[in-house]
Amino acid sequence: MLTYISQGVLQLPWWGYLIAVLILTQLTILSVTIFLHRCQAHRALELHAIPSHFFRFWLWLTTGMVTKEWTAIHRKHHAKVETAEDPHSPQVKGLAKVMWEGSELYRKESRDKETLERYGQGTPDDWIERNLYTKHSVMGIVLMFILDVVLFGAYGISIWALQMAWIPFWAAGIVNGVAHYWGYRNYECQDASRNLTPIGFFIGGEELHNNHHTYGTSAKFSVKWWEFDIGWMVIRILQFFGLAKPKRVAPKATLDSAKVAVDADTIKALVTYRFQVMARYSKDVILPVLQEEKKRAGLAGRSVLQRVRTLLIREPSLVKDAKKKQLESVLENHQSLSTVYQYRLKLQNIWARSTATQKELVEALQEWCKQAEATGIVALREFVKHLKTYVPQKA
Q1: Are 193 and 102 in a shared domain?
Q2: Which of 246, 264, 289 is the C-terminal boundary of a domain?
Q3: 322 has a pLDDT exceeding 70
Q4: What's residue 4's pLDDT?
Q5: Vertex 119, ends 36 and 233: CA angle to 5°?
Q6: Helices assigned H by DSSP within the chain
Q7: Which of 18, 79, 277, 372 lies at a C-alpha separation of 20 to 30 Å from 214?
Q8: Range of the domain at 163
Q9: Are residues 260 and 200 in the same domain?
């Protein structure tokens, strides 16, 4: 009898409890990233009723989160990212606040009826959602506690505590906090999102946060061949069994090496691939020119140039005023670097002209290419050749 009380019905060895914690918490993470995040908040995939109901039930047991609340708060985060209205921006509220009080920020925003009505449309509104998951959200957590104690005995109390802390720490704290503060960026989208690691395994692929913010409606978070998204792997398994259907993934640039002129297709392609294009510009133009400038500079000059490396490729709206002055000072003394940086801004401004006609955009890009080639900068001239080869994705 004492054995059942201390070890539960399953009576696992010590390492069995560790595996149990891993399985239980990973199920919760996958429920959040696949159901709440990719399916509900962004409509990036469709889920069959079987996994959909399982994920809802499991989230009720392990988090008590209401689908409409989570979805609305996350959609508002994307709509108001890095502003005072963002429910959990570490850039605005501070990293420590979001990391350690992320759950409190979530609960505060969940009480805002305007947020729920404006951003929570299209979430489940069936009988079980209204009468159980939403109305009695705490009941699931209590039931999970009982199940953990029955299955794992006294160890179940610790397992339950870890389950309850998992999402508040890893999702509300690490993803919402650290992933907007530290890490690497594949793309210069207009927010501070970062990829925490190229291996998106431990927190469901949410580690690839910059990729997600760049392509918010993509069901797949990995974009580079060396990145891994376990959430996408599970989605593909579900798809194999007819239980999931991805609707969108990040566009993959298509090139036609025979194409040598800018036309309407070029514009269509660049609007779609603009983040890849700018990443390519940084890699093939700005950084090589920076390297050439460093070779010509003395030791002190190389140090100064190295300090502005990130600023040269960073989204300008994210650069603080003090850093802008630092960058401007360096560009004044390095003409080639200043030229390629200005051409980067001019290229971005072309597809930012939302009121321009297609004809005007084609003419603007043709003029940009003509002027870029006339600079005589080899890296810029080669980039123009590459730019002309972009074509739209085939339907």
Answers
A1: yes
A2: 246
A3: yes
A4: 55
A5: 25
A6: 2-7, 14-30, 49-62, 67-79, 90-93, 95-110, 113-119, 127-128, 137-152, 155-167, 209-214, 230-240, 264-281, 287-296, 299-307, 309-313, 321-332, 335-351, 358-374, 378-387
A7: 372
A8: 2-246
A9: no
